[in-house]
Amino acid sequence: MKYSIHTFLQSKYFYAFVAFLLWGSWAYLVNVGNNHSGLTSGLSQGIASFVITVAMIESVTYFYNRFNGKILKLFLPSLITISLNCIFLIVVHYYAGTPHTFKTILPALTVGYMFCLFTTYSLYKSNQHREIQND
Predict the structure, then answer these.
(1) Is residue 134 domain-resident?
(2) What is the DSSP letter of 97?
(3) Is 135 within a domain?
(4) Looking at 32-41, 45-54, 87-96, which range is the least confident one?
């Protein structure tokens, strides 16, 4: 398989790297004072965001395939995935000693939830299209 910069820009690892930079920078800015190194919070959030981004599509797809019914398929996979991400981030920042955990994780979780909803909707539309073609 030929690998190009275009392929990389479409990969989950590119988006994971962007998440690392964006949310790591945000965590640094939110936590840079208060006798606490913003660097610890920034690296913790950045690394966690990288891991979460790589795993998020697989998680949503896994849960999407476990439910029946339009409403359950469209909303539960996103809700479960973002809830697991929230727990993971709270634990990461607890051990990192992040002073402003809520301010640190809320924007990333909000964007992550919207991304999960978009992913489940894309899965739903893709499955609908496949069903129409099979008829």
Answers:
(1) no
(2) T
(3) no
(4) 32-41
